[in-house]
Amino acid sequence: MEKEWMNEALDLATEAVEAGEVPVGCVFVYNGEVIAKGRNTVNETRNATRHAELNCLDQTAEWCKENGQNFATVVAAMKVWVTVEPCIMCASALHSLNVAAVTYGCKNDRFGGHTSVLNTAVLYPEPSPMVGGLESDRAMQLLKDFYKGTNSNAPHPKVKKDTAITRLTIKQDSVTQE
Amino acid sequence: MYGKRRKTDSSSPVSDGTQHEEHEVLENWHLRPVLDDDVMSDYIQLLDVYVDRVTDPKHTSRLIRELNAVWPIPSLQHLKRVSKSEVILDLAAEEGTPEICIQKLKDRGLDTAGLGCAPRRLQVPAMPPKTRRHYQEAIKLWPCNFHENKYLEKVLSGRLFNNADKLEQQKYMKKCLEAARHSFESGGAGVGALVVDPAQKRIIAIGCDDRGKYPLKHAIMVVIDLVSHSQGGGAWNVGDKQYFYEGEGSRERKAHVQDTVSDPVTVTRIEGVSRFESVQKQSSGSAGLECGSGKHSIIGGFDTQAKDVSESSDSCGVIYSDPVPRTSQYICTGYDVYVSREPCTMCAMALVHSRVRRVFYGCASPQGALGTNIKLNTLKCLNHHYEVFAGILEEECKCIETTWQNNLAIQV
């Protein structure tokens, strides 16, 4: 089942590529049901904070309204599947809302809020458990392909030919990276 | 952060006279920069080295030359090799002894003539001093090189902003406080935030915390989204008493949803806004807004922008405002943010993503990430760094913040 949710998140990340957004996808599962699924919409909204996780949280609020549920209760029992380690902002948001669990795919060397850049869990009294590494290669491949290809909104710095592809994701300068 | 900057801030293209028509008085508050701990620290890092006496001064220059050749110490390049009649021989490891130290240098071919050959341990500055204050401490211990960062010294000494700048800051914070009070009354956390384009002294958006309706609607998140609205984007509906300003040709348009004339508070606010707009028109009209044909790009970070400001102020007095912000303005690049209390980690990171230039906040908050729990603006591995200043109208801000925290405690 775990893999299935992550597959769905990866599909959303693929969809993000088609929309010219950084490929990060996310699904929220509550009582075995997907209640929110989202991807980055940074370029579309002109808002650098519109990451997949925050979009899903907005959807969750909508879902709660439609289904007459309490947001805080749902969120506290909800599991998050996201293709890339949540950034410091998203990780903080998830911790502050006490989501039940977060599973992510690959690491986020530039902004990661689990272990990569800042361990945000220590800043919250009841942090949400986070685990990484599920389908990590596929998630990373999407990012690599994205930065290798054409992101119409990202500036294209000169990259030395011998630079390893993994460094490309680090060097590319775009706020849309999550 | 706080790297070298070109001439900056106080020299703004729009004259101050028009901005302070109400003869605002500077109230009693103290602005403090939020800087890296190692810049602010009262102590400098030290480390142990072996130094030895030069018994015959005739040998001094030869000894320095030979020591630098046979045993250079790359990590101590900020220090002179010699001080008065002593030279640095080597870093002193814990288990090292003076004898081993001398023997090692001899083995490498040092001619110890003129040297006392009785090294002693001494503590010297471990790092190049970053500030003049640290430099003055450092040279008490050992002669040291120092490359002054003029911008940083200005920040540290409080010379970065003049009275006109402070009045401007106070004016913006008052607007934040107004929004904060509204937030408090409508079930938010009592926080107000404002985004301004400092190059034109133009307010882009005013927003307030609305977490009573949705827990992620912190003032900063709201105001960032309002800026997106001003660029034709945005994700959230514009809330009650939240504003963004949209460029439309040379005219300003205020966008405000759920605005009702029956609400007296709203009416006064609109009047305030139109006054602001007329000031904008006056100042731009007199300076010749549409001079030249070029669109000054304000994309690309502080340096470019600072240059643009000074260049345009030389030639025509004001930056040409691109009527189509969608292409000219890239999220919040170059903008300054004012907020009544210190942002939390989520909001502080949202400001990194949005690439703001400076963040000014009123008072600290227990969840704060720009000074209280961490200083997110000093995390070196992030790809963007903004400057942070705290303390504008601190007491007033603290008053609202304390009320909110007390209410929170009662609820729990």
What is the element layout, followed by pairings?
The complex is a heterodimer of chains A (178) and B (412).
Chain A: H1 2-18, E1 25-30, E2 33-39, H2 42-45, H3 52-67, H4 71-76, E3 79-84, H5 88-96, E4 101-106, E5 130-131, H6 136-148, H7 165-171
Parallel strand pairs in A: 3-4, 4-5
Antiparallel strand pairs in A: 1-2, 1-3
Helix pairs in contact in A: 1-6, 6-7
Chain B: E1 32-33, H1 37-40, E2 46-53, H2 60-70, E3 82-83, E4 86-91, H3 98-107, E5 120-125, H4 132-141, H5 150-157, H6 163-185, E6 192-197, E7 202-208, H7 219-230, E8 243-248, E9 251-255, H8 264-287, H9 302-315, H10 325-328, E10 336-341, H11 345-354, E11 358-363, E12 387-390, H12 394-411
Parallel strand pairs in B: 10-11, 11-12
Antiparallel strand pairs in B: 1-12, 2-4, 2-5, 3-4, 6-7, 6-10, 7-8, 8-9
Helix pairs in contact in B: 6-12
Family (chain B): Belongs to the cytidine and deoxycytidylate deaminase family. ADAT3 subfamily.
Region (Disordered) (chain B): 1-21
Protein name (chain B): CMP/dCMP-type deaminase domain-containing protein
Protein described:
The complex is a heterodimer of chains A (178) and B (412). Chain A has 178 residues and is α/β, with parallel strands linked by helices. Chain A has a single domain (1-148), classed as 3-Layer(aba) Sandwich (Cytidine Deaminase, domain 2). Chain A is built from 7 helices and 5 strands. In chain A, helix 1 packs parallel to helix 6 and helix 6 (136-148) crosses helix 7 (165-171). Chain A starts with a helix and ends in a 7-residue tail after the last helix. Chain B is of the alpha+beta class and 412 residues long. In chain B, 36% of the residues lie in helices and 16% in strands. Among the domains of chain B are: 40-156, no CATH class; 164-235 and 330-410, Cytidine Deaminase, domain 2, CATH 3.40.140. The model of chain B is unreliable at 4-20, 247-252 and 257-327 (pLDDT under 50). In chain B, the strands form 2 sheets. Chain B has an 8-stranded mixed sheet with strand order 1-12-11-10-6-7-8-9. Chain B is built from 12 helices and 12 strands. The A-B interface holds A 41, 44-50, 54-55, 57-58, 61, 71-72, 87-90, 92-93, 96-97, 110-111, 113, 117-118, 120, 123, 173, 175 and B 214-216, 221, 224-225, 227-228, 231-236, 326, 331-332, 344-347, 349-350, 352-355, 367, 369, 373-374, 376, 379, 381-383.
